[in-house]
Design goal:
The protein is mainly beta and 124 residues long. It is 7% helix and 35% strand. The chain has one domain. A five-stranded mixed sheet has the order 1-2-3-7-8, with no helix packed on it. Strands 4-5-6 form a three-stranded antiparallel sheet, with no helix packed on it. It is globular and about 35 Å long.
């Protein structure tokens, strides 16, 4: 399975998963930027399962829109892996903080996961 879309809810990320051989997945207005104001969720026909990632409150969940009023990205850019869809990072400033990046098409198994403040991901 692989990541084909996402949604962030507080300190949780909901990943929509598709089959590894599914490459034509899309949703409404996925070619429009900024994705956060235009793009819909991936169409249900492409979703095979889900994975939920719960993140320690001491960490930050960043998305492509985190540093823009209107991001320059579309969801098609995520499919092309131009930028990660989600980054889990240590709190604070600077480029030297530890992070975990999630891109569209990354392999992920269905289930529930927790990222602790040491940046370790465990299934539960």
């Amino acid at each position: 399975m692989k990541i084909i879309d996402f949604a962030v809810y507080g300190n949780a990320v909901h990943f929509y998963l598709g089959e590894d051989d599914c490459n034509d997945y899309h949703g409404d207005d996925w070619d429009d930027a900024p994705y956060e104001h235009n793009a819909g969720t991936v169409y249900d026909d492409y979703v095979s399962d889900i994975a939920d990632l719960y993140v320690d409150i001491d960490l930050e969940i960043l998305t492509a829109e985190s540093f823009y009023i209107n991001s320059p990205f579309s969801k098609e850019d995520f499919k092309k892996r131009v930028t990660p869809c989600v980054v889990i990072a240590e709190s604070g400033w600077g480029d030297d903080r530890k992070s975990i990046k999630f891109y569209f098409n990354d392999k992920m198994e269905p289930g529930r996961y927790f990222v602790n403040k040491e940046m370790t991901v465990t299934a539960f």
